[in-house]
Every structure is written in C-alpha cells, then in structure tokens.
C-alpha cells in the first residue's frame, strides 16, 4: 500500500521510524537535485540534502500540515542553500567539469544513443550549468523550482515569499539571460 | 539589426511565461487574447520560440547521480531514521577510507593466518605464503648460519619467530623447575604446585601468542597498505594518461557533433520558414 506524504508524516510524528525512512527515500533525490542546481556543488548539495532531512526530522512534531510536506522540505532546503551561498560569500560555482571520461560516458549512454549524441548531450548539459551560474539567485531559484520540480507559480511565490507576478517576471528575465548565454556559448563552441 | 516592437501591455513578460508553462490559473479569455496577439506580433513569436528552445535545453541538464546507500531501509534492514539522523554520514555510501580500512583489516587478518608475504615491484605483484618460504635459505647455500638465513627470508624476520623462541625457552625452564621441585616435595604438595605451574604457563603462553598475533597483523596490514598505495599511484598515473588521450578525442568529436547539430538546426529553421511561406 502506498501512503501519502501526509499519512507518513502523521505516522512519523507518532514515532514510526519506517515512515520517516519512506519520506526520505521519496524526497532525497528531488531535494538533492534542487540543492545541486541552486548551489552547483555536488558535495555541498549532498550536505544540504542531509541537513534538510535532519532539520525536518527534528521539526516534525511542530509540522501541522499548513503546507504540503514537499513544500515544507523545499523551504528548508532553499533556506539552507541561501545560508550556504551567504557563507561562501560568492556566486554559486558549478564544478568545472573535467575532461569527459568515455568509460563513464559509455555507462551513461541510453541503449539507442550513439556516442556522438551522448557527447552532445553532455556538452549541452555543461553549457546549461555554466549559464545557470550567471543568473541571480532569485531567478535561478524560480527557474529550478518551475522547470525541474514542476511547482505552480503560486507555490513558488509562497515558498520564496514574493508576489505571483514577481515570480513570473523573474522567470522571464532568467530565461532571457539563459537564451543569450546559451546562444553565446554555442557560438563559442563552434 | 531591426528592433521589433510589441504593443501587448505592461504584463507582457508575465503573460509570455504563463503561456510558455501553460499556467492553469490563466483564464481562457486571457490565453486566447494572447494567442490572437501572437499571430500578428513578430517580436512575441520570436521570444516564445526562443524561450521554448531554452526550455528544451534546460531539460537536458541533469545533476550528477548522488550516492544514496545506507539511508535505504530496503538495502539496510538495520537502518532507522533516528540513528541515521544522529550520524552525520548517515545517508552516504560508506566512505572510501572506511572501505579501505575494512579491506586492509580483513586482508591483514587473512594474511596473518596464512603468513602471507606480498611484494609489488617492477616485476609485478608477488604473493607467497611464509610457510613455503622456510626452505629458501638452505637453497641459497647458507646452511648453518641463522643470521644470514634471516636476512635472506622474510619469514625469518617475522616478529613471531623471536616470540616462539622465547616461549620455548620459558617452557623449558618451567619444565626443569617443575622437575626439580617434584624430586624433593611430598606427593600432595607436588600435585598442587604442578597445577599452579600449568595454569601459569598456559596463561603466559596465551598472552605471548596474542601479542605475537597482534604484531603480525599490524605488520601485514602495513604491507598491504603499502601495496594498495603503490597500486593506487600506478592506477592514477595510468588514468591521467588515458584522460589526456581521451580528452583530445572527445574534443574533436564534440566539435564535429556541434557542427552537425548547427547544420541540422539551420536546415530545420529553413524548413520551418519555407513551411510558413
């Protein structure tokens, strides 16, 4: 039987450790992905993810279900990312990718994907990562939450604490910057 | 370059974003108003097409695969969130150093039991059991010289050898002492003394054996660690070479692929333009 997040939260509050385990399993990848795309460092993203669940676990008895559990987790993770960025006192830096390891590439290849397609996909992913680092934190967060986590504009607005129209404007401005940077980088690669 | 103008209104950016993401909160009337505008506005057409392209590119960005292991209750039945959350490393896979340490400990104990002699040099990896090596000094023609034999055989250098010799001496002296005491004492006193002496010998023997085993394990773990370090260094050197070679290949392939993609995109654009006309 599949429990909803809210049911698992209720069981966790009553002391059922397995239920919290289930929540961790369910949300660790999205939270890690959010952290990685926000701060751009694999190791630190893992730390943020770990800390997110640690804080959630400690604060669970106080969670009254005003918001969705996922939104609550996202908020904790985003606050931690923000703290990390402040602490680092620098713009988030995506780990500079080393030369592509072809063995790793081959392992990552889709069965129907040629090595050329795979290299192109990796290159594009690298370009996107690089372009994302140029965005201000607010625009990047809006794009990450919308594009990769499928949150509604309203949810994003509540999460980051700004009006709905501001979220849309940030998204538009972020996309415009990305459009320019991606076009520039594509030309530079040729 | 000609600057395209748009007369849509102040909320144009927001409407474009809502249109791009198919925002369900936008009313049908508002949506159809923008769609009507889009038919005649070149600037909005360009923006919408370009931003759709950006979204398509964004979809190709995936973060590196994280290592989730110990936090998985399915893979670890002992896992509990409570214990895990109190362990800072709870959700990661076991750290590399811990795996290496565990492997070394295991190898050390195994090698200690087998009395292994592991050697890694220019000629490659050599693994021998110490027991099979005992005859080597004789083969080398140095019979009768214990000191030379020790220098020639790693087994002769083993720390347990001295311990065994000391133990042997101790046992001999104990036996002599026991024999001497039994000749002049009463039978009852003999029995008590012998029992106490046996217990003492056994205790000392055990202590010596335990110490000897610990020393062997430490030494063998050290040897295995040295071997692992050598192998790692060699492996890293090889990987650097491979990386350099593959980097060149990958760069060339990447450039070719990007060129091809560009050509395909241009053809696609031309095709779309011809379709519109």
Give structural notes.
The complex is a heterodimer of chains A (190) and B (277). Mean pLDDT of chain A is 83; it is low at 95-111. Chain A has 2 domains: 5-88, RNA polymerase sigma factor, region 2, helix turn helix motif (Rna Polymerase Sigma Factor, Chain: A), CATH 1.10.1740.10; 113-189, Arc Repressor Mutant, subunit A, CATH 1.10.10.10. Chain A is mostly helical and 190 residues long. Chain A contains 9 helices and no strands. In chain B, helix 5 runs antiparallel to helix 9. The relative contact order of chain B is 0.05. The two termini of chain B are 22 Å apart. Chain B has helices spanning 12-20, 28-40, 42-58, 81-85, 96-114, 136-139, 146-152, 159-184, 187-276; strands at residues 116-121, 124-129. A two-stranded antiparallel ribbon of chain B has the order 1-2. Chain B has 277 residues and is mostly helical. Chain B folds into 2 domains: 1-61, no CATH class; 95-230, no CATH class. Chain B is elongated. The chains are: A mainly alpha (190), B mainly alpha (277).
